[in-house]
Design a protein that fits this description.
The longest helix is centred in the N-terminal third of the chain and has 36 residues. About 35% of the residues are buried. It is elongated, with a radius of gyration of 27 Å. The strands form 4 sheets. The protein has an 8-stranded mixed sheet. The termini are far apart. The chain is an alpha+beta fold. Strand 12 and strand 13 form a beta hairpin.
Length: about 425
């Protein structure tokens, strides 16, 4: 969330940011008008409170009964005017808060202009897509041959958009999760967290999922709890309403969670198989850092996420998102996209974002640089390290063989206890 004082003092910057993001600017105008009304109400309220206080002092000093009665009436009149002004102020403050929650972050100066994902810029790539001397199958066909995913029975349990990993498929999923957690803890220096999957509404507001993405999330009305859409939400809110002590930063967390998204409106070929599902697993990286170091930390976070794909020797590219494709809470974001030859598309497996103080202001997460210094809002960052099951899609499709077998990457063979998955005879 942007501070109201920042919006008031920099309306041109905010308006330009909204235009870059292809967002309407009428909301900004409404905020500026409400802010004027709020300050006007505050002046009137403080004037009436001053009158009441002054009359109270004069009443105590008055000796003349008529003068005392007149002062009491004056105090009553002023007091009666205070209550409606306080109600007006409360209403205006509530509306301002609601509107400020809808204003997106200011894009960083490095963010390129653009309308949508077509204007994203490729920063770098790793490994060349494999060349096959046969027509590569997609992951749905490969999974059928290997007998490792059951979409039909998942449909009986939960409906479309769900899956059942079985046998070697379940072991592959578990192996990848454990391997990524161990990699980020042992070699990248993160502390592991396993958070709840049910989230309070204020935590969803804190990271920016609410109010904008309510339709894409699952809500349990009877308990007023949301299903975790990404570990970013519970992990970031670990330090909600806290002032972190001097020396506490940086804090680096890694967490595995199941994630739940409605994917409202999703349809078509991009929903085939595992490409877009309602429940999926993800290993998430979250950082709390000082503002002066946040963009260096952002690059290191990106490198940690890339390392997963490098060790699996999967072809990928890093895309710097344009302003028109940038998530509302992020100031700058890289997408890591892995190549899936059977599906013939690039699949996003990680969005690595720097939110600066946007989330910490909403969640009131601050720190002290020194014992006697004023609290400042931390900068928060996060990125998937990385998301499944699209990682499984890329692995199956890149490592497939002409006979339908799939080679297991060297990095996880010790967990899979095999170097190849072979088709099952039917």
């Amino acid at each position: 969330m942007l501070a109201l004082s920042f919006v008031r003092q920099n309306p041109d910057i905010v308006r330009k940011a909204l235009e870059l993001r292809n967002e309407p600017t009428e909301l900004l105008d409404e905020i500026l008008e409400l802010d004027i009304a709020r300050r006007r109400t505050l002046v009137e309220l403080e004037d009436l409170r001053r009158q009441v206080n002054q009359a109270s002092r004069q009443i105590g000093a008055a000796r003349n009964p008529d003068e005392r009665s007149a002062l009491i009436e004056e105090s009553k009149s002023a007091s009666q005017g205070i209550r409606p002004l306080e109600a007006t102020l409360e209403d205006v403050d509530g509306r301002l808060q609601d509107y400020l929650l809808l204003i997106p972050n200011i894009p960083h100066r490095d963010v390129p202009p653009g309308q949508d994902q077509d204007d994203n810029i490729e920063v770098r790539s790793f490994a060349k897509p494999p060349q096959f001397d046969f027509e590569p199958a997609d992951h749905v066909e490969l999974a059928r041959r290997l007998d490792i995913i059951d979409f039909a029975r998942a449909g009986k349990i939960s409906g479309s958009g769900f899956w059942v990993f079985k046998g070697a498929g379940a072991k592959l999923q578990r192996s990848l999760i454990n391997w990524m957690l161990d990699l980020h803890v042992a070699e990248h220096g993160y502390s592991e967290i396993y958070p709840p999957s049910l989230i309070r509404p204020e935590c969803m507001v804190g990271t920016g999922q609410l109010p904008k993405f309510a339709n894409d999330s699952y809500f349990i009305e009877s308990d007023s709890l949301w299903l975790d859409p990404t570990a970013e939400v519970p992990v970031t809110n670990l330090h909600r309403e806290e002032i972190l002590s001097p020396g506490a930063l940086p804090i680096h967390y890694v967490a595995y969670t199941p994630c739940f998204r409605r994917e409202a409106g999703a349809a078509g070929s991009e929903t085939r198989g595992l490409l877009r599902v309602h429940q999926f697993d993800k290993v998430e990286l979250v950082k709390f850092v000082e503002p002066d170091t946040s963009y260096d930390e952002h690059e290191r976070l990106l490198a940690d996420a890339e390392d997963v794909l490098k060790r699996l020797n999967l072809p990928y590219r890093v895309m710097l998102l344009s302003a028109g494709d940038l998530g509302g809470a992020a100031a700058k974001c890289y997408d890591i996209e892995v190549w899936a030859p059977g599906s013939a598309r690039w699949l996003e497996v990680s969005s690595v974002s720097n939110f600066e103080s946007y989330q910490s202001r909403r969640a009131n997460i601050r720190y002290r640089a020194a014992a006697d210094s004023r609290p400042r809002f931390v900068h928060t960052l996060n990125g998937s390290g990385v998301a499944l099951p699209r990682l499984v899609v890329a692995l199956l499709e890149n490592y497939q063989q002409a006979d339908g077998a799939v080679i297991i990457p060297t990095a996880i063979r010790h967990l899979m206890q095999t170097d190849v998955l072979r088709p099952v005879a039917r």
